[in-house]
Specification:
single chain; alpha+beta; Beta Polymerase, domain 2; 4 domains; 5-stranded mixed sheet; 5 strands; 58% helix
Length: 370
Amino acid sequence: MNAEQLRSVGQEVIYLAGCAVNETKPDLGKVSDLESVYALAARHKLSAAVAIALESAGQKDARSSQAIASALKRAALFEQALAQVKAALEAAGIWYMPLKGAVLKAYYPQYGVREMADCDILFDASRAEDVRGLMERLGFQTERFGVMHHDVYFKKPLLNFQMHLSLFDPIHEKLHAYYGDVYKRLVGDGWEKRFSPEDFYLYVTAHAYKHYSGGGAGLRSLLDTYVYLKKEKLDMDYVAAEAEKIGVAGFEAANRSLALRLFSGQELTAEEKDRLDYVLSSGAYGTTAHQVENRLRANGWGKARYALNRFFVPISQKNKAYAVYARRYPFFYRHKLLLPLLPFYRILRSLKSGKLIRETKTIVKIKKSR
């Protein structure tokens, strides 16, 4: 759909999602195209919220029933698996802390409204091998281990657990430094830890900023902010001071204002409307186009520099990307004579995934539009 259609359908999705979390019955006269509404809601992981709002107004059909049933099944499977993982971690004497959606889902008014694609848990990084063993004993397959700041485990039919050794990769310098000794910020007497309400909000905001400034972040992220701030009364002086330290103060203020206005039906400023256009076009997980455009803008690169940088290999440990590359491509960094081959390996992987083609198309479109 074009930009005008995206705004129009987006407003209907926002209206229905707001009705769902505010527990108000929507006016069906404000919903004109259910097909497009469901399609956009799915892109933003808001299908269940939209379906619940529609059904509360008597608009029940196969799509709404399927969306709600799917969300409830997913929520039940994740809840059961999370309980098993927590019990195993505690039995092994490993401290841990559920993150993001695993916590935020409790702030939504109805079970299953907050859709989850994965479950994130921070844990004692020194026990990574033990965690791998206990996850595999619980029936999970190891999808990725020791490569990034989180290990990934999968269990059929849909359980994806991301077990975090740290909260951010070193390439996000300020965020990684701020959360480098995260344990001292945690509270809780047992093995399960938690952030204070302010620190949890700061982490969720920092995580949203990472995605927003990368490939983009969607409506679900804004809805998370809205439902959390509706329930928690935060010390905003503390939040502002800490957000400044990690370089997200401007983002936090703008994101908070947009979320609160958007889902309470208030008029947006011109700047907020532009911000919303970006969010609507991002979908839940961002886009390659936004990622390319943001990198070009943030680094002041031309297209040739961008292309070279995408496949360069840091060889000096002084380079901030070195630690990230060394963890992602351990074989090449253990056998440094093979490092010249790493760019070709990355190109082949990007071709296989289709990402290189998507990035190339974006670069061409940028060239044509300038």
